[in-house]
Amino acid sequence: MDLDLWISKVKEGQHLAEHELQTLCEYVKEILIEESNVQPVNSPVTVCGDIHGQFHDLMKLFATGGHVPETNYIFMGDFVDRGFNSLEVFTILLLLKARKGIQPGILDRSGRDTVGREMGMVAAGGEGDPDGEEDGKVGDDEKEAPEGCGLRLPGRKMIRSQGKMVYGFYDECQRKYGNANAWRYCTDVFDYLTLSAIINGTVLCVHGGLSPDVRTVDQIRTIDRNCEIPHEGPFCDLMWSDPEEIETWAVSPRGAGWLFGSRVTTEFNHVNNLDLVCRAHQLVQEGLKYMFQDKGLVTVWSAPNYCYRCGNVASILSFDENMDRDVKFFTETEENNQMRGPRTAVPYFL
User: Fold this and answer.
1) What's the pLDDT tens digit per position in 248-277?
2) The Serine/threonine specific protein phosphatases domain covers which part of the protein (predicted)?
3) Residue pair 317/327 in contact by the 8 Å Cβ criterion
């Protein structure tokens, strides 16, 4: 494999040959097999949120934060779907993962897409709210979830056979390769991506959020991740849950995962000696948003002008050698700006 040649090829807008993509996917799977569910990563490192197939904006992200391998990255998921260049996004991330000299946490399974949309899919939102982020109180649905309880609402998360026709990645692979083989190679890799990353033992990066079945980080290490995301349970919750201005737990309007509050987050950080939980999964108009009085959780969003119509800025969050934080914001590229136009919103709940 000539990784540098392949990287240049993809950056120039070309696709790898089908056999090259297959070779790359098999190679990266062998790397991922050796990684932990909670992959340790050393600072300095830069944490990124959802990308959603916006390849040109991903290139701007690297221009903003620094190029690999000089800068190490953790991507917290939702690499594909919604955007027009999911194949290029996932291919370049695989290539950077394969090329040595980068932190092993560059691909956090806090994001494997197209299963019904990656592990942290967007929820049913309206035309102006594609990620289903709503303001307001939770109301009567708020409730205390017993520690270790198995209770879950029936999830509406789609499996690959249901979701492949809906959000774009499958059709894109068919269009660009003339068959579904590329889609199969990539979705096979999704099953090997790690569940989370931990920076210097003090910052946990996960796609969605917390789970009432997960009190300690060690419990994440025991989850069997070599499978599609289940409809319920701790694996599902880590990918689907969202923070909310409540104290404990509430039913999630997504139909999977939970809403979790300030007390839950503070206790989780205290028990695990964490300073911060980093997550993605929700559109943030301002690009980055801290939650709760102690700011023990932050949402990072890295897809500017999401779906080419939301008008949001994007961000990346960097940690230096001393774990001091620096946020960089960026807007969409001119290439993505030209993609604006009539676009049918795809509701999550069908």
Assistant:
1) 999 999 999 999 999 999 999 999 999 999
2) 16-334
3) yes
Residue 319: beta bridge partners? 45, 325
Phi and psi angles of residue 244, each rounded to the nearest 5 degrees, phi first: -145, 155
Nearest to 145 by CA among 46, 39, 63, 232: 232
Contacts of 191 (CB under 8 A, 6+ apart): 112, 225, 226, 227, 228
Q: What is the mean pLDDT of the chain?
A: 83
Q: Is residue 151 predicted with pLDDT exceeding 60?
A: no
Task: Spell out the domains of the chain, with CATH numbers in brackets.
Answer: 3-123+137-337 (3.60.21.10)
207 vs 130: which has the higher pLDDT: 207
What whole-number distance in Å separates Cα of residue 96 and Cα of residue 241? 29
Residue 8 CA to residue 14 CA, distance in Å, equals 9
User: pLDDT of 12-65, one tens digit each?
Assistant: 999 999 999 999 999 999 999 999 999 999 999 999 999 999 999 999 999 999
H runs (alpha helix) in 66-210: 86-98, 160-163, 169-177, 181-190
CA distance 285 to 79: 19
Distance of alpha carbon 296 from the chain centroid: 19
Torsion sign, CA atoms 232, 213, 240, 246: positive
Residue pair 36/222 in contact (Cβ under 8 Å)? The answer is: no
Q: How many Cβ atoms from other residues are within 10 Å of residue 63's Cβ?
A: 11
- Please state the pTM of the whole predicted model: 0.83
Burial environment of residue 153 by CB neighbours within 10 A (0 to 12, 13 to 18, 19 or more):
middle
CA distance 252 to 256: 6
Nearest alpha-carbon partner for 247 in 233, 265, 273:
265
